[in-house]
Amino acid sequence: MIFFSAFIFSGLVCAIAQMILDNTNLTPGHVTSLFTVLGAILSFLGLYEKLIDFAGAGATVLISNFGHMLYQGGLIGLNESGLIGCFTHLLTKASAAIVSAVVFSAILSFIFKPKD
């Protein structure tokens, strides 16, 4: 059942993003930023953890999870080090995802050639 929930949730989010792209003048960058901020807002409201419990990986692979991780890292920093910790701990929870994206992108750029 968790696979079905993950598929339905992430498919629904992708369908919403596609509808936004098709029916507005927003670019993919705008929609990406919108979903990142929405993930942070849902995390602030305590709803993103419930989405993760419901959809599992369907909620953790989306760009909205990046906003959730940024908010959680900033919150941990705020609790540990005060206001300055909000900025110094911001990427702690998201660092593995960022580093893996950079490393795998570099590896794949050496293997494949772009089309001209």
| Distinct helical segment count | 7
What structural class is derived from the secondary structure elements?
mainly alpha
> What amount of the residues lies in strands?
under 5%
How many strands? Answer: 0
Mean pLDDT: 91
User: Would you list the SSEs in sequence order as H and E?
Assistant: HHHHHHH
The tally of domains stands at 1
N- to C-terminal separation?
Answer: 44 Å
The percent of residues in helical segments reads: over 70%
- Assign an overall shape: globular
Q: The biggest beta sheet, please?
A: none
What would you say this structure looks like, in words?
This protein has 116 residues and is an all-alpha fold. The chain has one domain. It is 79% helix and 0% strand. The radius of gyration is 16 Å and the shape is globular. It starts with a helix and ends in a 5-residue tail after the last helix. The model has no long low-confidence stretch (mean pLDDT 91).
Tell me the layout of helices and strands.
Layout: H1 2-23, H2 28-44, H3 48-55, H4 57-60, H5 64-81, H6 83-88, H7 95-111
